[in-house]
From TrEMBL:
<dbReference type="Pfam" id="PF01965">
    <property type="entry name" value="DJ-1_PfpI"/>
</dbReference>
<dbReference type="InterPro" id="IPR029062">
    <property type="entry name" value="Class_I_gatase-like"/>
</dbReference>
<dbReference type="GO" id="GO:0006355">
    <property type="term" value="P:regulation of DNA-templated transcription"/>
</dbReference>
<protein>
    <submittedName>
        <fullName>DJ-1/PfpI family protein</fullName>
    </submittedName>
</protein>
<dbReference type="InterPro" id="IPR052158">
    <property type="entry name" value="INH-QAR"/>
</dbReference>
<feature type="domain" description="DJ-1/PfpI">
    <location>
        <begin position="1"/>
        <end position="162"/>
    </location>
</feature>
<dbReference type="InterPro" id="IPR002818">
    <property type="entry name" value="DJ-1/PfpI"/>
</dbReference>
Length: 216
């Protein structure tokens, strides 16, 4: 089983590493990182560097597609090769998935029009511009497309996918192997549960008059 993960400059590292850590534990799986050209690709902090050995021309099919997000995913207009590759690979997949703002790449590739989907809370309006209906769930399945919300939810998505590809017990075993048992010290990991103080800091961080979708 081949899992293909496209990589682009300014990706968010956990969007890739989280699902990878889950899916690499599946039996008989090959995970391949793919980019426009081979070499080193750097994350959105300029610290994590991934070595990519396969180009879009090298990978013409996959059983599973995992599209990560990050600031680089928001400049999809500058990524025609990747969008064309996503469209092509989607035709052969059993499952096409995204993490965080990777959903914007699925949208730009024309795969989300008329579907329900999720994404990072800061990208809701961009997602809807591609014809998708946003829901604030961590994982959303529509046909063979699975979208995940922001960053850490990629692990939830990958465990969901692992169960679909094998069975629940196998997915549970992987969850145990990586000891994924979230016990956050604070409530507030979603817009709905965040404190006013946290929202204020996020507003300052995101700028440009950002206001949380669905919260008044």
């Amino acid at each position: 089983m081949r899992v293909a993960i496209p990589v682009f400059p300014r990706f968010t590292s956990l969007d890739i590493i989280g699902p990878y850590q889950v899916l690499v534990n599946l039996p008989d799986v090959e995970v391949v990182l793919v980019a426009e050209s081979t070499g080193i690709v750097t994350d959105d902090r300029g610290l994590i560097k991934l070595s990519v050995d396969a180009t879009f021309d090298d990978v013409d099919h996959a059983d599973v597609l995992v599209v990560p997000g990050g600031p680089g995913s928001r400049v999809h207009g500058d990524m025609p090769e990747m969008l064309a590759w996503i469209q092509h690979i989607h035709a052969s997949t059993t499952w096409t998935t995204s993490v965080c703002t990777g959903s914007l790449l699925l949208g730009a590739a024309g795969l989300l029009d008329g579907l329900t989907a999720t994404t990072h809370f800061s990208a809701v309006r961009e997602l809807q511009a591609w014809g998708a209906t946003y829901v604030p769930d961590r994982v959303v399945t529509q046909g063979k497309i699975i979208t995940a919300a922001g960053v850490s939810s990629g692990i939830d998505m990958a465990l969901t996918l692992a169960a679909l590809l094998t069975d629940q017990v196998t997915a549970e075993a992987i969850q145990l192997l990586i000891e994924y048992d979230p016990q956050p010290p604070f409530a507030g990991g979603s817009v709905a549960s965040a404190s006013e103080g946290a929202l204020a800091k996020v507003r300052a961080r995101l700028g440009s008059g950002w206001e949380p979708y669905g919260v008044t």
